[in-house]
Amino acid sequence: MGRVIEICANSAQSCVEAEAGGARRVELCAGIPEGGTTPSYGEIRTAQALTSTLAIHVIIRPRGGDFLYTGAELCSMLYDIEMAKQLRVQGVAFGCLTADGSLDGRRMKRLVEAAAPLSVTCHRAFDLCRDPFGTMELLIDLGVDRILTSGRQPDALRGIPLIAGLVDRAAGRIVVMPGCGIHEGNIARIETETKATEFHASARSLLRSRMIFRNENVPMGTAVTLSEFETLRTDRRKVAALVARTDVTA
Fold it and tell me: What is the pLDDT of residues 151-167, one digit of tens each?
């Protein structure tokens, strides 16, 4: 089986770009400045309507911040998994921790069981856990298919030592997928040094608004990271470069 590049897509249009660049799987998210939150029903439906070969995995995350969830938030996650199944997406991504940094095995079990038979990824909640190797064993026992991780570092390049150790310890029992800061300039090194076979990348470019009239004095949020007249979107050229750089089957 060939290697896999998963694109972190922040919209239905980004899914179109990912597919055009040669990707075959995306993690579809809203709320990228918060690290990714659950996309809307409409966004998922539109992504499906505008693509034909793309496997769509949906992040199940009710808010930004930590991964210690209330009962109400867990209920929202279960309903969003139900929605994802009704829409017949191919997978979901989620993660729950306890206050002491352990995997919340009880809640993860509920979510994994609710998600069946979809593919399940434990997202980067993993990078905030206390014991990565012990947590990986628990995820294997729960039947989780893959772990998305930067190796508990700001980016996957700096996380290579831990990622390599996880891949070795996993021994094919679960996929360890490096993510965060992966691009065409470093993916070959990460692949070589970690022995990973799946990779997660954003491959985005900055887009300028086509608005002619602009009022720059009215931000639409409290923590704006970009101008209201700038957006980020997956760039098919960057996706294609990732695929070509490693001779990857996307």
Answer: 999 999 999 999 999 99
The beta-carbon contacts of 16-19 under 8 Å, at least 24 apart in sequence, are 16/47, 16/50, 16/51, 17/233, 17/234, 17/235, 17/236, 17/239, 18/54, 18/203, 18/234, 18/236, 18/239, 19/51, 19/52, 19/53, 19/54
3-state secondary structure (DSSP) of residue 80:
helix
For 44-69, the pLDDT digits (tens) are 999 999 999 999 999 999 999 999 99
Query: 122 in helix, strand or coil?
Result: strand
26-49 burial, b at 16+ Cβ within 10 Å, e below that, comes to bbbbbebeeebbbbeeebbebbbe
Whole-structure pTM value: 0.90
Q: Note the Cα 223 to chain centre separation in Å.
A: 22
Query: DSSP 3-state assignment of 144?
Result: coil
Tokens of 174: 């679960």
Of 30, 24, 34, 59, the residue nearest 148 (C-alpha) = 59
User: Phi and psi at residue 87, in whole multiples of 5°?
Assistant: -80, -5
pLDDT (tens digit per residue) in 212-245: 898 888 777 665 556 667 778 899 999 999 888 7
